[in-house]
Amino acid sequence: MTPSNIEPQTSNLPAPQLVARDLYRSFQLGARKIEVLRGISVDILKGEAAFLCGASGAGKTTLLYTLAGLETPESGTVEFEGTALYKGGEQVQARIRNERIGFVFQGYFLLPELTALENVLLPSMIGRHLKPEAAKQALVDVGLADRLHHLPAELSGGEQQRVAIARALINDPAIIFADEPTGNLDSKTGEGIIELLLGLVRERGKTLVVVTHDAQLATRGDRRLEIRDGLLVA
After folding, report:
1. pTM for the whole thing?
2. Burial of residue 102, with CB atoms counted within 10 A of its CB: 0-12 exposed, 13-18 middle, 19 or more buried
3. CA distance 101 to 90
4. 3-state class of 46 per DSSP?
5. Please, are residues 64 and 209 in contact by the beta-carbon 8 Å criterion?
6. Tens digit of pLDDT per residue, the chain (234 long)?
C-alpha cells in the first residue's frame, strides 16, 4: 500500500486549488468505532477532473463531503483557494459553498413543487442575486431548453440529473463535486451524464471531483483516486 498522500506527479502543474491534509473521520456504531478516513491527504488541481472510487462503504462520500465543506473532519485541514474551510465559522463555509462550490447529488434533491427553472434558480436565491437568464442558459447548456417549466415528476431520471447539474453551475462555481451522479441511472443515460459533466467543466475551466463505484467510469478523468481501508492508494 502506498502512503495516503496522493498528489500530482508532474512538477510543471499549477498550484493546487484544494489542499487536504491528514483528514480523520470516524463513526460510532453501538460500541464499535468505525474509522472511515485514517489520515488522508490529497491535492486537487485547478481544471482537473479527478474520479474517486472504492468499494461500497470505503468512505468515498465521506471524503467528498469533507472536501466540499459539508462534513467537518475530526482532525485535519481542508484549504480551498487559500481559505481554511473549517476554521472561519459557518458563515464563511456557507459563502464559499454558495459562491465557489457546486454539488451534484446522486438523488437529485429537486423540490417537487418547483419547475426545472425554479430549481436551478435556488442557489442564486440563497445568494440574493436572482439570475433568471443564467438559469435558462444553464438548462439550455444541459440540453433541457424545452423543459424549463416542467416539474420534476414530469422529467425522466436523466433529465432530473441534468437539472441538478444546471443548478450546480448557476453561480459559476470554481469546482464541482458530484456524488455518484450516475448511481440512479441506466448505463447509457449515466454515460451521457458523465460526458455532459466532463464537457461542461472542461469548456468552462472548472475543476471536477466525482465519486463513483464504477471502475470503468473512474478512468474517464485526468486522475483516478482509490480509497481503501481509510487511505488513498495509487
Report:
1. 0.89
2. buried
3. 15
4. coil
5. yes
6. 444 455 555 446 667 999 999 999 998 888 888 899 999 999 999 999 999 998 888 899 999 999 999 999 999 999 999 999 988 778 878 888 888 999 999 899 999 999 999 999 998 887 667 889 999 999 999 999 999 999 999 999 999 999 999 999 998 999 999 999 998 888 889 989 999 999 988 999 999 999 998 888 888 899 999 999 889 986
